[in-house]
């Protein structure tokens, strides 16, 4: 073994240990409990919680697949006025945290809110009692809300796939006489399945691990039950037990999906595919296409963000901008940027590990990298407390043993936050990088190997440069997620550090979330910058596409 | 890409500075589950007066876990939280240390602090009845009566698993025993007009919207809404309701507390005690009353006029420690009757 390979193995082993640390620490906590909780849970909690969780995931799944795939098809298969704009706008809901959307919608849709008040005026009704609309605070309300906010997770990879890969096959289908509908269902959809699965997986994990919106809307998911057990009964072992069972379920489902897909992925073909030639729409068809495409943007972004702008403006007139806003924004960007850099570096290592360490250890590492995203943020943060404390004490004893000084990287430092962000969002970077690497035709690295480069050399000189756009797009997505991250930040941040999201949450928790509207808007803006970059990346990645088509 | 790299370098350097640049004069570290907006005025007043820097971190779920994990090397001096259950959890998990302070003992009545000085209540809030203005004859309202069938479909409440409701259910348990409490809770559940969700303010909002007629919520929200501090909308909600202090049958109004402990491994123990002593001074207690609309724990400090207008508060005398001991049973009971379903 060469020294470089030895180093590589050591780094991977260390990374694997770090990735597993929170799960192990949860397992230790869980083993502390007696299991006496389960009869109670089985009798009174689980039947309802499992049902609600299942319905929530099923509903959100259907919505994000429908909206994400439909809109991706719309912008990649058709040309119509406003298409380029729509292309960008469809990503906007990514920038808004779900619980903020929940607050905004309850304000909007409440009987005293503008929508119902307007309706009553229109209908000439006086009391809210005369107009009884379904309450947003319900399971269907939560499904709709999360579906319209989370669909970009499906839209983004599916659209990329349609743009990059589908051209030749779709044209072949069309030449063989398939109409647009048949082309979509028989060719495009099966082709996009890995991308749809990837995106839906992310969206469903977001939905499953969401606490803010679900709790606020009164939906009792399993995750909400973990919190009730832990917070209200001081039963950390019990909560850890539920969380671990859920984690096993999630990991099992992901494995099942991979199995069902039979290892099919974005297998690199020998040549670069042409992007789809778009069908030109005009007249009412064009208007319809634009309207359809803008609908999810309106519900997932336009209405809640518009409301926030209005609320922030009202506040601004009353109280002025909070002085601490700039510091919060800086903190947010600071921690998210550093963590993004670390995440990308780790993501490269993990995604490339099948090429470097062999398929088996590589895919094990890739799965381990998904653990942090597969559990609720607070659970991850709690799971990290003990390992971070261990690290602290280890370093302290090193310092005592004569080093005299130890770096502050443990609990209550910014480094802890960076570690936690990295663990939480590593899978996003890994997934994107993996897809990017897989898109490279295998002839290219093979050529490099034949010409005498080692595996590591090939990776650094050929594969990573070719996959760079995908790597960056993963980085940007991870950055957006970090900038709006709440539960991990709330539990692990250092003294005196407020980010935009913790400040907003502090205001929301005392019922004055409009005071936090400026912070919420800044989160959205911070999220918009990478989203805009994402789009440019994609456009550059498909350069041979005709620019005149819309 | 180059620009990104340069940005990364800059970030790295500033991180290094952030990690190294710590050398202060007198300071005290406060870990709190209270929202920064609520306690900032108090802390600023303290700093202005004493010159002591108060470093804070607002942690919500998991504060006790974090302090426990930080252990002997931890930074926490004072841990501040709401709800008696959360306060006593800190003591039960051995995260607090006993404090002997004549100032604290003189200012805080005995039922509102630990005999060994391991926890201290700093302010109080009552669980009061919000009601439609059109309703009359509510002055003799009891918590027990909320289960009566006359209220079918007319009550709005937040989650039965929220600490404020858990503490009330626990107080009911201490008073009436498990069987009667379960019957009561089923009755209240049957009377709900909507899902038990949202926050306390939503009770006022939903009453204003005619979704329900009555509900339970904390007393300080009345002040926060009616003062207009939450904006003009909330002011309307606050004015759309009337507020009554309900009691247990033959007893008083259920009261919960906000409070603090001195952390077991406090690196600045003396400063921690001084901060607590300030928080029960006349000045700070008046600020609690004025800015947060809470009931002061110190006798003789005036209650805010907006709360004064609700009438005299007669406390339920159930010991707070008893309420805390029963919170798990209360939480399980809320599950059992499917209160939040």
Automatic annotation (TrEMBL), chain B:
<comment type="similarity">
    <text>Belongs to the bacterial solute-binding protein 1 family.</text>
</comment>
<keyword id="KW-0732">Signal</keyword>
<dbReference type="InterPro" id="IPR026045">
    <property type="entry name" value="Ferric-bd"/>
</dbReference>
<feature type="signal peptide">
    <location>
        <begin position="1"/>
        <end position="25"/>
    </location>
</feature>
<dbReference type="Pfam" id="PF13343">
    <property type="entry name" value="SBP_bac_6"/>
</dbReference>
<protein>
    <submittedName>
        <fullName>Extracellular solute-binding protein</fullName>
    </submittedName>
</protein>
């Amino acid at each position: 073994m060469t020294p470089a390979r030895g180093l590589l193995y050591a780094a991977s082993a260390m990374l694997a240990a770090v990735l597993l640390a929170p799960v192990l620490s949860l397992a230790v906590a869980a083993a502390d409990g007696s299991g006496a909780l389960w009869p109670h849970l089985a009798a009174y909690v689980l039947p309802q919680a499992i049902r609600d969780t299942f319905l929530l995931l099923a509903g959100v799944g259907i919505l994000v697949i429908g909206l994400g795939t439909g809109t991706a098809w719309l912008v990649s298969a058709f040309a119509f006025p406003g298409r380029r704009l729509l292309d960008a706008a469809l990503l906007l809901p990514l920038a808004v945290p779900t619980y903020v959307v929940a607050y905004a919608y309850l304000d909007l849709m409440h009987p005293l809110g503008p929508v119902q008040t307007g309706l009553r005026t229109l209908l000439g009704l006086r009391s809210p009692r005369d107009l009884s609309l379904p309450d947003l605070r319900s399971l269907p309300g939560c499904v709709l809300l999360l579906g319209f906010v989370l669909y970009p997770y499906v839209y983004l990879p599916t659209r990329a796939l349609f743009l990059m890969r589908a051209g030749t096959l779709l044209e072949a289908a069309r030449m063989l006489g398939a109409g647009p509908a048949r082309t979509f269902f028989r060719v495009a959809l099966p082709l996009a399945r890995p991308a749809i699965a990837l995106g839906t997986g992310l969206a469903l994990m977001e939905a499953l691990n969401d606490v803010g919106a679900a709790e606020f809307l009164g939906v009792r998911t399993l995750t909400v039950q973990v919190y009730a057990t832990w917070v209200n009964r001081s039963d950390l072992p019990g909560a850890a037990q539920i969380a671990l069972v859920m984690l096993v379920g999630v990991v099992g489902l992901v494995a099942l999906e991979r199995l069902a897909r039979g290892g099919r992925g974005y297998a690199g073909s020998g040549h670069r595919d042409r992007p789809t030639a778009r069908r030109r729409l005009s007249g009412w068809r064009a208007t319809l296409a634009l309207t359809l495409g803008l609908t999810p943007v309106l519900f997932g972004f336009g209405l809640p963000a518009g409301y926030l702008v209005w609320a922030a403006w009202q506040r601004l007139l009353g109280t002025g901008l909070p002085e601490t806003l700039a510091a919060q924004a800086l903190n947010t960007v600071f921690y998210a940027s550093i963590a993004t850099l670390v995440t990308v570096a780790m993501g490269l290592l993990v995604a490339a590990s099948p090429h470097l360490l062999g398929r088996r250890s590589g895919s094990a590492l890739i799965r381990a990298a998904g653990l942090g995203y597969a559990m609720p943020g607070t659970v991850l943060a709690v799971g990290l407390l003990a390992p971070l404390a261990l690290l602290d004490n280890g370093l302290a004893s090193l310092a005592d043993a004569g080093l005299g000084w130890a770096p502050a990287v443990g609990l209550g430092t910014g480094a802890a936050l960076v570690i936690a962000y990295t663990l939480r969002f590593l899978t996003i970077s890994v997934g994107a990088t993996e897809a990017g690497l897989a898109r490279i035709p295998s002839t290219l690295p093979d050529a490099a190997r034949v010409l005498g480069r080692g595996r590591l050399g090939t990776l650094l000189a050929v594969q990573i440069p070719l996959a760079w756009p995908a790597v960056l797009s993963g980085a940007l997505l991870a950055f957006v997620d970090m900038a709006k991250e709440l539960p991990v930040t709330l539990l692990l941040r250092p003294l005196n550090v407020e980010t935009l999201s913790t400040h907003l949450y502090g205001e929301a928790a005392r019922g004055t979330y409009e005071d936090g509207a400026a912070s919420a808007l800044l989160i959205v803006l911070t999220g918009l910058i990478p989203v805009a970059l994402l789009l440019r990346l994609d456009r550059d990645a498909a350069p041979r596409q005709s620019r005149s088509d819309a | 890409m180059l620009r990104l790299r340069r940005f990364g370098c800059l970030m790295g350097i500033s991180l290094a500075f952030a990690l190294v640049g710590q050398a202060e004069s007198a300071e005290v570290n406060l870990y709190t589950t209270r929202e920064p907006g609520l306690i900032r005025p108090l802390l600023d007043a303290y700093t202005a007066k004493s010159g002591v820097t108060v470093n804070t971190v607002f942690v919500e779920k998991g504060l006790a876990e974090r302090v426990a994990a930080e252990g002997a090397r931890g930074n926490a001096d004072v841990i501040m939280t709401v709800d008696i259950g959360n306060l006593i959890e800190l003591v039960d998990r051995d995260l607090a240390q006993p404090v002997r302070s004549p100032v604290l003992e003189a200012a805080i009545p005995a039922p509102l602090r630990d005999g060994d000085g391991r926890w201290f209540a700093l302010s109080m809030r009552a669980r009061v009845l919000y009601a439609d203005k059109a309703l009359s004859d509510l002055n003799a309202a009891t918590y027990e009566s909320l289960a009566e069938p006359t209220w079918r479909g007319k009550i709005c409440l937040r989650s039965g698993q929220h600490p404020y409701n858990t503490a009330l259910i626990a107080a009911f348990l201490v008073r009436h025993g498990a069987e009667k409490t379960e019957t009561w809770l089923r009755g209240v559940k049957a009377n709900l007009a909507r899902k038990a969700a949202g926050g306390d303010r939503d009770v006022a909002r939903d009453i204003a919207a005619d979704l329900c007629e009555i509900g339970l919520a904390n007393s300080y929200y009345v002040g926060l809404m009616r003062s207009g501090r939450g904006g003009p909308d909330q002011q309307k909600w606050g004015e759309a309701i009337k507020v009554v202090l309900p009691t247990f049958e033959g007893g008083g109004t259920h009261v919960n507390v906000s409070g603090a402990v001195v952390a077991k491994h406090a690196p600045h123990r003396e400063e921690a005690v001084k901060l607590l002593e300030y928080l029960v001074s006349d000045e700070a207690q008046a600020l609690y009353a004025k800015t947060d609309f809470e009931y002061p724990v110190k006798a003789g400090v005036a209650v805010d006029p907006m709360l004064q207008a609700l009438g005299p508060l007669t406390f339920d005398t159930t010991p707070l420690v008893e309420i805390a001991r029963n919170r798990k049973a209360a939480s399980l009971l809320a599950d059992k009757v499917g209160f939040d379903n």
